[in-house]
Write a structure and sequence with these properties.
The strands form two sheets. An eight-stranded mixed β-sheet has the order 5-4-3-2-1-12-13-14, with helices on both faces. A six-stranded mixed β-sheet has the order 8-7-6-9-11-10, with helices on both faces. It has ten helices and 14 strands. By secondary structure, it is of the alpha/beta class. The protein folds into two domains: 4-83 and 195-271, Rossmann fold (3-Layer(aba) Sandwich); 88-192, Hypothetical Protein, Haloacid Dehalogenase-like Hydrolase, Chain: A, domain 2. The longest helix is centred in the middle third of the chain and has 15 residues, at 160-174. Strand 13 (233-236), helix 9 (242-246) and strand 14 (250-251) form a beta-alpha-beta unit. The protein has helices spanning 22-33, 50-56, 88-97, 123-131, 141-146, 160-174, 197-208, 225-230, 242-246, 259-268, and strands at 4-7, 37-41, 63-66, 71-74, 79-83, 105-110, 114-117, 137-139, 151-157, 178-184, 187-192, 215-219, 233-236, 250-251. InterPro entries: Cof, HAD-like_sf, HAD-SF_hydro_IIB, HAD_sf. It holds the Pfam family Hydrolase_3.
């Protein structure tokens, strides 16, 4: 029996216009009314989630996994339940990685601030910050390290060809010390080692007393893969790559066709 549904946001819950289809909202509300926990599980920070969560209109206590598994919030009072932190030593290591790649910007997601480690915020970084209803702040690494803000994760950003070269050189090396993933064409992410959407989802389900057999996960991208593999009821979006679809138990329609609603109705609510 499905007791928890973990839902990715970009490319999954949200359509191509970054909006939630009405069908998805109705299906999620039906699932919550049936006693199923609805957990948004996303790479987005809190600023990029709140407006959408409010749109879902859920009245019961829910949970949100943010920053690709680095933070877990309880929506009852927005307490930070669990989090991973990038240490100052790890920040130095991340900064060293771009030493030979001046076109790649290191960005850091803090508890309150979206940092760009640069003299000025690159246009691409400010664009990404805008997608999560935030504004990036240019800062030196020294200033971030001297501050008191918790840093949850890092993202390397550049145009695709430049990031391809960076990833080819640094992925294996960085992967020894961090959990890394290419989440978008212009974003290569680095989280504290062992922290992913899957690790956060497992920790949360353990706390709730659920097993993987009680979990349905819906996603479309590489940073969803471990979460999908953890969940017994794994659902790939119709817009996911063939590699993602091959690893999932089910395939639903695309994010522009309310695939989340179809998955909830077909695989969760139909079997209550």
């Amino acid at each position: 029996m499905i007791k928890l549904i973990a839902i990715d946001m970009d490319g999954t819950l949200l359509n191509s216009e970054k909006k939630i289809p009405a069908e998805n909202i109705r299906a999620i509300q039906k699932a919550a009314a049936a006693g199923i926990k609805v957990v948004l599980c996303t790479g987005r920070p809190k600023s990029g989630i709140l407006p959408y969560f409010e749109e879902l209109g859920l009245s019961e206590e829910e949970y949100i996994i943010m920053n690709n598994g680095c933070t877990v919030y309880n929506t009852k009072d927005w307490d930070l339940m669990n989090y991973a932190q990038v240490s100052n030593q790890e920040l130095d290591r991340l900064y060293q990685a771009i030493e030979n790649h001046p076109e790649v910007c290191l960005t850091l997601t803090g508890q309150k601030t979206y940092f760009a480690i640069a003299d000025e915020v690159p246009e691409l970084v400010q664009y990404d910050a805008g997608l999560v209803f935030d504004t990036a702040k240019a800062s030196s690494l020294a200033a971030v390290k001297e501050g008191s803000e918790i840093i949850f994760q890092a993202m390397f950003m550049a145009e695709q060809s430049k990031l391809d070269a960076f990833q080819a050189e640094q992925e294996e090396v960085l992967g020894r010390d961090f959990s890394v993933v290419r989440s978008q064409s212009y974003i290569f992410e680095a989280m504290p080692k062992g922290h992913t959407k899957a690790s956060a989802l497992k920790e949360l389900t353990d706390q709730l007393g659920y097993s993987p057999e009680n979990v349905m996960a819906i996603g479309d991208a590489a940073n969803d893969l471990e979460m999908l593999e953890y969940s017994y009821h794994s659902v790939a979006m119709g817009n996911a790559s063939a590699a993602i679809k091959e690893r999932c138990r089910y395939v639903t329609s695309s994010n522009d066709q309310a695939g989340v609603a179809k998955a909830i109705l077909d695989y969760a609510l139909a079997h209550l």
